[in-house]
Design a protein that fits this description.
By secondary structure, this protein is mainly alpha-helical. It has a domain of about 100 residues: Rossmann fold, CATH 3.40.50. About 35% of the residues lie in helices and about 5% in strands. The chain has eight helices and two strands. It has a two-stranded parallel sheet with strand order 1-2. α5 crosses α6. The longest helix is centred in the C-terminal third of the chain and has 13 residues. It is elongated and about 60 Å long. It starts with about 25 loop residues before the first helix and ends with a helix.
Length: about 190
Amino acid sequence: MARPRAGTGKKPNILIIWGDDIGWFNPSCYSSGIMGYQTPHIDRIANEGARFTDWYGQQSCTAGRAAFITGQAPIRTGLTKVGLPGAKLGLDAEVIDLRTLVPLDIETIEQSVEKTGRCLIAQEAPRTSGFAAELSALVQERCFYHLEAPVERVTGWDTPYPHAFEWSYFPGPKRMKKALEKVMAD
């Protein structure tokens, strides 16, 4: 349950319920239990006058979970579709979300590089003098003998950009795919 903000004494006025792989008909306040189960807590909120009016969905479980876990639109992470058997680019990638490793857990990254022999670093910030550059240097220093290809970075551009072209600036699926192909070819 959300707590009041310090000093205001007021409760938050927004409730967000995250759900993975569910539809609008799943809560029993909409289906009247036809789904075979009840959701009493959500039903209580609905009965008190708050029904869901907005929703967000992706075209696959992979994309929905990517958005849920990373907090980013899946187009930014490249996780928009489930990989298909026999696809031209089929990779078994190990993904480490550094936001979950605070402070930086370099040992986990080293173990991954030792296992895979490769490292691709993605960040939305510019390429030069950023966190990705520092992390790339750390990986190169600590994992040199385990790397089977140069460390690859996919980043924002080193230039100011108009916000109208924001999606061209961010490292999207095309740039991620190109970088993955490059690191796997070496």
